[in-house]
Amino acid sequence: MPLLALALLWSTTANAYEHKYNDAGALLHWKQPTVDFKLNPSGDHGMNPDDVEDHFIRALDEFRIDGNHLSLEYLGRTSSQRIEYADKENVIYFEDDWDSNIGADRTLLMLTFAYSTDDGELVGADIAVNNQHHDWTTSGADEDRNDFYNATSHELGHAVGLAHSDLDEATMWGSTHAGETRKRTLSDDDIAGVLSLYGEPIASGQRWACSSSGGAPAGPLGLGLTIIAIAGLMRRRRESDSKSEGPHR
Description:
There is one protein chain. By secondary structure, the chain is of the alpha/beta class. About 20% of the residues lie in helices and about 30% in strands. The protein has helices at about 50-60, 100, 150-160, 190-200, 235-240; strands spanning about 5-10, 20, 35-40, 70-75, 90-95, 110-115, 120-130, 135, 145, 205-215, 225-230. Helix 1 (about 50-60) packs across helix 3.
C-alpha cells in the first residue's frame, strides 16, 4: 500500500475554525444536499454493536443544525472493511490491522479519507477507526478508553469539509484523550464552521500550506484523496514539545 504525502491548503477566518482545501487549492464541500453513511460495527473492540450504531447515529445528528443545508443520514450497516471509492459507500469501520492496511501514525485515533474533484466537490468519504492501537468505549465514563462518539463527531467534521480549530474546547480541535466526551457535541465555533460551508456565504481569508501524510489506495482517475485525522494525547504532547510553530496536522 503506497504512502501518500498530500499538500493541503487551509484558510483562516475571523473565527477559530478552518476549512479544508484539496491539493488543487479548491475548497472541499458537498454539493448534494444529502450524504449517506454506513457503519460496520464489527471488530475486536469489546463494545456492543448496537451501542456503536446508536452512538454513530448520534454523531451524525450533531450536524442537524438550524440553517445547515447539508443533511448527514444513516443508511444502515455494511460488511465493508476497507477504504474504497469504487464501492460508492461512505463507510466508518474498525481497522484491526492499522499498521498493514492503513500504514499511518499509530497515535492517530481515526482517519478520514475524502475524495473530491479538482473543483473541491466531495464525492465520497470513508472513516477508519484505529482498533489496533487504541481502546474504545461507548460508556462515556471510562477514563482508560477513547470515546467512540467523541472521536466520530470530530471525524464527521472533517468529512463535511472542516479542518482543525484553534480552540481546544471545539470538537474540531486536533487532539483528544482517553475518557474525554466534551467533543461529542459541537461547539459554537464548530457550528459556525459548518454554517460557513452550508449556510451563510463563506468568508474570505488568507490561506497557507500544510502537509499531511497517510497510507491509502490511490484514488480513481480525476479524483483527489485528502487524508485527515484526530490524534490521541501522545500526538498533542509531541506537538507541545516541538520548538517549531505552524498549523495543526
